[in-house]
Amino acid sequence: MSPLRNPSLRQVDRLRRIVPWAVVGLVGAVPTTVAASMAIDLIQKRGRKTRAAPRPGTFSSTVEESELDIYTDGATLYEDMLDAIGSARESILMETFIWKNDEVGQRFIDAFNAASARGVEVHLIYDGFANLSVPSSFYHQLFEQVRVLRLPTVARRFWRGPMRHSGFNHSKILVIDDDVAFVGGFNIGSLYARHWRDTHLRSVGPGAWGLRQTIAEVWNEFHDSDEQIAWVPPAAWESKLRVSANLPIHLVYPIRSMYLNAFARARKRIWLTTPYFIPDQQLLHSLVEAAERGVDVRVMVPQESNHILGDWLSRGFFEQMINSKVTVLLYTASMIHSKVATVDGEWSTVGTANIDRLSLTFNYETNVEVIDRAFAAEMEKVFDSDSMHCVELGSEWLNRHRLTKLAERALVPMRPWL
């Protein structure tokens, strides 16, 4: 019998043809879905008014040998970041998601150029997909000696491993002279300085090493040995201040495990803030299970985020959460973009990862984990301040219109892609 007439061999041959295209389709589904949701957002949010965000202030603490500052408004954060860039003597490393070509973005361009002109070694990483609307001429203002990696949107080595060579660069980190480091939810742009409530962390001291290492690992994977960022030893072992970084290129995604471990340990309270709450079932179960054993679980999300589709997907979880005694808080004052949590007044995290599959199983992300009571107390002050601008969902949510419930169910298949 001819090999092509053998049914089993024909099936194998067919699979060989189909599987590569199926893999390409799977990889392409995420950016395609994200692009579609962005288009929907642009159409639907035309009528939304941009409001000035509340500014709770800056909160400070010392953890071991590192001085930590919690920023809650972009204007103050950007000034301190630019001051740090201006005082850099040896090196600047930055990794960001969105870098707008506006007044704030231009100030960063000028600051990096000035640092480079005085001999500082500058390495910059930004995401190609997130900045498709920004003309390349904006970034071309950077001096030639400034080393830049635009994480490509499509031109990746997918053939070497689709999951390794995908993922958006969603981290937002700045490290100065291996000693001062910033990380959190703030992108670079005027909108975020004035109109978004976000949270960023500054670490001065040994805690900066982990953030430097995170940027170096991403940079080095995309460059030959003669262009790589050199490894430096940590100044000290940090038992209370840790960095968890999702690195798709290594198939490493520790942030999800970090959250699951913290929620499993909770005895008293879990206070979580995230702009996009689209958890997988295990994460959702961990919160529900904690609430049912008597833990005060509060989840704060924006009443209206910048992604309307994301809002609708989040709402599909609210009924189960309310029935399970999880408190759902809708932040009403502005768009809240913070990615933070604190547990039992002992454990806290500030970073770039949302509670959704894109952040936890696809993107480059970075969170700092802090195990310290004094720092957790400052984080709880921030949460209390934000709570003053929230409405709590109650039993009335369970009686929402049937068409609303139907729309939520119809969107369930999209959860794995956002």
UniProtKB/TrEMBL annotation:
One Pfam family, short name: PLDc_2
Residue ranges annotated for the PLD phosphodiesterase domain, each copy included: 165-192, 332-359
This protein's UniProt keywords: Membrane, Transmembrane, Transmembrane helix
Matches recorded under InterPro entries: PLD-like_dom, PLipase_D/transphosphatidylase
Entry's transmembrane regions: 20-43
PROSITE patterns associated with the record: PLD
Name the record gives this protein: Phospholipase D-like domain-containing protein
Provenance organism: Brevibacterium spongiae
